[in-house]
Amino acid sequence: MSAQTITVNGIECHPIVEKCQGCERTKEVDGVKYCASYPLPERKWAQKVCNFATHMKLEIDKGGKVNVNPLKASKRAARGR
Ligand code: SF4
């Protein structure tokens, strides 16, 4: 276990990555932020966007093109959905 990992219910949790900044699922423990939904945040960002993220969302337009839409996700969060 490295200095920044914590163990919660037997699961080793790693600190959030830069792309997680702004997500509402982060929790701070002893000055280090962790994800409350997934123990390995860097793996969630191995694809384009973390599917649990509250601050960004993937959209697929009519042409099948994939876009990252941070604004729509933040509006949804503001409405409480
Ligand atoms: S839900 Fe995704 S974006 Fe949010 S903190 Fe967890 S890993 Fe990061």
UniProtKB/TrEMBL annotation:
Pfam families per record: DUF6811
Origin: domain of life: Bacteria
InterPro entries in the record: PxxKW_fam (IPR047766)
Protein name stated in the entry: Uncharacterized protein
Provenance organism: Desulfolutivibrio sulfodismutans
